[in-house]
Amino acid sequence: MQQRITNNDETFPTRFEGSTISLDICPNIRRDHVCVQGSNGTDCTTLVWRLSKWSEIEVSVQGSQSAASGKRGISVAADSPVPSFRSCVAARGYYLRMPKPPVLEKPVRRSGVLDVVRGTAILAVIGVHAFQAAVAIAPEGSIAIDSRMFVAFSYLRFGVELFFALSGWLMFALYYRNEKISTQSYWARRILRLWPLWILFTVLSFVVSLTAFHYLVSFDGNAYSVLELVVAFLICIFFLGWLSETFWNVPFGGWSIQVEVGHYLLFWPMRSKSARFIMATVFVGYATYFVASSLEEQTGAGFLHDAAGAWIRFGLYGTWPFFLAGGLAYLVTRRVRDMSRAQFFALSLQNWPLILMGGAILLISLKIPIPQGQSKEAIVAVIILLGLSWCAVKLELLSRLFQSWGRYSYFMYFAHFWVLNAVVHLATSNGWQLSIGSSGVVVATYFAGLAILAIGVSWALAIPSWRLFESKFLKFARNVR
Predict the structure, then answer these.
(1) 164-203: per-residue pLDDT in tens?
(2) Model confidence over 305-325: pLDDT tens digits?
(3) Strands 55-60 and 84-89, bridge-based pairing
(4) How many independent structural domains does the chain possess?
(5) Fewer CB within 10 Å, N or C, the chain?
(6) CB-based contact 163:121 (threshold 8 Å)
(7) Which domain holds residue 15?
(8) Do the beta carbons of residue 301 and residue 143 sit within 8 Å?
(9) Which has the closest alpha carbon to 159: 127, 194, 116, 135?
(10) Are residues 233 and 261 in the same domain?
(11) Same domain as 254, residue 351
(12) Could you tell me if 382 and 158 are in contact, meaning their C-beta atoms sit under 8 angstroms apart?
């Protein structure tokens, strides 16, 4: 059976082969709309396919097809039910319109490259804490805090900001303007990813704080009443520890997880907004910092003073730009990957307001503090860490190691604090200090040993935690619609 269908001034051949319709579209057509309309007369929904070369797409079409014609579309008629539709499509950016999505939502596969970046970030975080532990163990005066070694290693603390940028990339990739994801599904995935380990280490922190091993956590639980501990536990469990100057970092490293929940809260209602609107929220965040700083300086002890201090301690105004930077980097990369230089230049001119906003944010951020230092230091550190990630991707053995560390990074983030705190306490309480040469050699030796120990122990514990504990919750979260 042969049939010719016309759209505007172009003619396309079609052929029917059993239950399969093949529609060949001429390669000189840059963009067109194909609409296969069901007999029930339902409106077509739009599905966008980005193709850079000839491809075959097989999609499911339910019910019989009825003859119809459209001014902008092509209508295909068939006398019998057509269970599938096969299209051979040429031209970049071709738009295919179908009454239903062709396939159900596919499970998102882990990206090896993103795991390498995640692995770089966790190594940087463990590295800076191992260095701090080495300085604490080393003989007094072994290294000055203004030495080049101290300054260089201190920049590793901004691995947390790299985590924020990576989180933004993933959130935009999965959820930005994705109407298929429900609010229930979004929060089920976010909470069930964070909460199980968060509850585990929070409970462990409060229990240990009441024992002789309270040096492993950031507070001594015996110094508080039962009521105070219950209240503190509740605010920590619900990611509100930043409201308290004592419990803002319980469990150890918890401040960054609380900030990450803040990112999730801000992102979800903005997922359908324009990039310009989302970038404008950065200026609002910076304004809240200046207001809070002024209130903290000009008011005495009281509610306003405490609230301003809590907001500054939280630091969401300073970390939100890193989250958005990762998300916007994803949007830009997705859009320009198939563009020529001329097209990229034209797109840049078209979006000059966004470029100006980005420049203004960068300039203002140089004066804005973040929980761990200054934004300008964090920007430099993130760029360097991304460069190291790129080098690791190119080396197969390193790439595999970094991918594994990235996969298990969440547990490793919490666990390495416990390992280092235990070693520092044992070393300082028992006088385990070595005189092994110059100050740089002392600290470097301690650093290497502590870093290997912290990575090895936390990694070994993270693997069974993932397989037996964390992955079960994630599997359940994926089934929430």
Answers:
(1) 999 999 999 999 998 888 999 999 999 999 999 999 999 9
(2) 999 999 999 999 999 999 999
(3) antiparallel
(4) 2
(5) N
(6) yes
(7) 2-98
(8) no
(9) 127
(10) yes
(11) yes
(12) yes
